Amino acid sequence: MMKINATSGIENIATVYIAEFSSGKLVEFVESTQPPTPIHEKWVLMVSSLFGCPVQCRFCDAGGYYQGKLSADEIHAQIAYLITKRFPDKRIPVQKFKIQFARMGEPAFNSEVLTVIEQITERYDAPGFLPSISTIAPQSCDSFFQRLLQIKKSKFPDRFQLQFSIHSTNRKQRDWLIPVKKWDFNQIAKYGSLFFDEGGRKITLNFALVQDAKIDPEVLQDFFSPDVFLLKITPVNPTLMAHKHQLTSTIQSDSLEYSFIDELQDIGYEVILSIGELKENKIGSNCGQYITNYLKSNKQLHDGYTTPIIKK
Predict the structure, then answer these.
(1) Rounded to 5°, angle at Cα 263 from 261 and 269
(2) Nearest-CA neighbor of 53 among 67, 40, 32, 42?
(3) Cα(first)–Cα(last) distance of the chain, in Å?
(4) Which of 102, 169, 186, 202 is the Cys-Cys partner for 230 at CB 3.0 to 4.6 Å?
(5) From CA 139, how far away is CA 108, in angstroms rounded?
(6) Is the pTM higher than 0.90?
(7) For residue 268, what are the contacts with CB-CB under 8 A and spacing of at least 6?
(8) Residue 21 in this model has a pLDDT that exceeds 90
(9) Domain boundaries in the chain?
(10) Widest pairwise Cα distance in the chain
(11) Is pLDDT of 285 > 80?
């Protein structure tokens, strides 16, 4: 059983749901309507796969404690709650219906994520379903990625979003930002080339750029073909962890022009500058934010987590 304890949101932008399972463990999941795009064109759900996260990335509030993996049924419960609120007949007439397994937890630590992905099209009439996995590529999860590859090739050859969180092309910086053993660039490049299908979606390399983070064009060219990989550049969201480590963002909301992006485009990369809706920072619905930890901290952030929490 899953019970909604509280919500935080702004209508027609995003809502975070804080839920409790019968075990007493808490999760958060998110519905985002991606303004100004109408919901029949794009609808995004972000669900949790772990109770907390063991990784402790330097700007992610979901790390710092870990209470185990969610079962497939517990992941499905989050998805079913959001779908039946809007589409009780389980028919989802949305051109791009994206489910991101990225709220709490590194998805590669839980193979039940893959079970859920396989079952979505059996449970719902969702022709626009777009599964999305964002991962740091932990070193110990090869079996997860082998099965993921099989599922993608057999069920979603041209409709799957795979994202690798990189954040820096400098190994020492990357290891500090993501302090666990993980695939090196050569392993990511080889897997991405296997995963990619001609005519399908490119593999995304995510860079949430902190000040002084390296994004070296020569390193990218050595490993990642622009025919297979694209680059996504995002701000560092306002989180407790970012504040603790005094991390500021290279990308600012008031600027869309960056010379390094022009340089990357000049050498053939497709580059997405993704700033998004700033009100999501106030809600706490952006990646890396985690309302439950914020409430426990008794701290204040002037640019994040300011939307009222409504208890149920």
Answers:
(1) 75
(2) 67
(3) 16
(4) 202
(5) 10
(6) yes
(7) 226
(8) yes
(9) 2-311
(10) 53
(11) no
User: Measuring CA to CA, how many Å separate 178 from each of 58, 175, 235, 244, 307?
Assistant: 7, 5, 16, 15, 29
Domain 2-311 coded CATH 3.20.20.70 = yes
Tens-place pLDDT, residues 74-119: 999 999 999 999 999 999 999 999 999 999 999 999 999 999 999 9
- Grouping H, G, I as helix, E, B as strand and the rest as coil, residue 215 is coil
DSSP character for 268?
T
- Which residue bears the tokens 């993704």? 274
What does the alpha-carbon distance between residue 299 and residue 312 come to, in Å, rounded to a whole number? 23
Strand order, beta sheet including 271-273: 271-273, 229-234, 203-208, 161-165, 129-135, 96-100, 42-46, 26-32, 14-21, 2-10, 310-311
Report how far residue 100's alpha carbon sits from residue 30's, in angstroms, rounded to the nearest whole number: 10
- The pair of structure tokens assigned to 107 is 């998805």
Residue 156, token pair as written in the block: 């979603």
Q: Is 68 left (phi over 0), alpha (psi -120 to 50) or beta?
A: left
Token readout for 41 is 């064109």
Give the position of tokens 């695939």: 183
Place of tokens 């190994």: 171
Nearest CA among 238, 278, 239, 233 for reference residue 256: 233
State which amino acid sits at residue 69.
Answer: K
Neighbour tally for 211: CB within 10 Å: 10
